[in-house]
């Protein structure tokens, strides 16, 4: 199997002309909000006056639903292009040792990028990071919290990073953007998707969610651009990291 099919140089000329990846860049952001709106509508129909705020607690469920749709979209797109999801995920077992060594180096940089900007921005906007966390982590019914604890970390590795860095970023380059510009656009939209997970109409919360992961997104995107075979390993790490987010919701729901 030729994993190089997903690189810009191998995109056919006809495909390049059609490939500006708006769907890849905005679909997850819109789906998060759309699924939350459906849940809010259900609460409203049941008579709850705080339907939208109540729906925000269900962000792990909206994330799982979005992940499933994203995986289905990626599968459909690769199938139409005559390739497989395996090729998109850059699965390549020929250089495992070098990939793992490179992964360790990337994680040394990426790990603090996933935490420090989050805490610093929350402190700047709210005065106390705990206040931001309390708006984000809300209790769910036990069955929903358990389902999210299992399904959220299982589905997000196959949907999030591949959408932005295996699909959108190469298409941006093929469309004509330079490497740095393509990375910056893909990373911005990757970070920005969190503004609707959950969507709360609070300027501080929106700003926090919009930018908190931007340094991490740039780091991960640069790593995939530098060494595409790191993608499946980063997908695994991503899933493990998101266990902690699902666990916070589970713990709050007990």
TrEMBL record:
Key word Transmembrane present in the record? yes
**Protein name per UniProt:** CAAX amino terminal protease family protein
Question: What residues form the membrane-spanning segments?
Answer: 20-45, 57-76, 96-114, 135-154, 205-224, 230-250
* Top-rank taxon, per record: Bacteria
Lineage, top ranks? Bacteria, Pseudomonadati, Myxococcota, Myxococcia, Myxococcales
* Keywords on record: Membrane, Transmembrane, Transmembrane helix
Q: Does the keyword Repressor apply?
A: no
């Amino acid at each position: 199997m030729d994993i190089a099919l997903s690189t810009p140089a191998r995109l056919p000329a006809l495909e390049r002309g059609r490939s500006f990846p708006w769907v890849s860049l905005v679909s997850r952001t819109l789906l998060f909000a759309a699924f939350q709106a459906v849940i809010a509508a259900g609460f409203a129909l049941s008579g709850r006056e705080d339907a939208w705020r109540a729906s925000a607690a269900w962000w792990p469920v909206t994330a799982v639903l979005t992940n499933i749709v994203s995986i289905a979209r990626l599968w459909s797109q690769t199938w139409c292009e005559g390739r497989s999801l395996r090729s998109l995920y850059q699965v390549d077992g020929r250089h495992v040792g070098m990939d793992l060594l490179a992964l360790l180096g990337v994680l040394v940089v990426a790990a603090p990028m996933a935490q420090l900007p989050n805490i610093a921005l929350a402190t700047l906007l709210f005065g106390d990071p705990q206040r931001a966390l309390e708006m984000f982590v809300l209790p769910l019914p036990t069955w929903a919290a358990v389902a999210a604890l299992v399904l959220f970390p299982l589905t997000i590795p196959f949907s999030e990073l591949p959408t932005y860095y295996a699909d959108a970023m190469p298409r941006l380059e093929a469309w004509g953007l330079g490497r740095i510009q393509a990375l910056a656009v893909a990373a911005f939209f990757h970070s920005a998707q969190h503004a609707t997970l959950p969507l709360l109409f609070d300027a501080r919360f929106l700003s926090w969610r919009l930018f908190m992961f931007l340094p991490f997104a740039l780091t991960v995107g640069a790593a995939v651009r530098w060494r595409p075979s790191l993608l499946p390993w980063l997908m695994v790490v991503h899933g493990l990291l998101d266990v902690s987010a699902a666990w916070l919701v589970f713990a709050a729901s007990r």
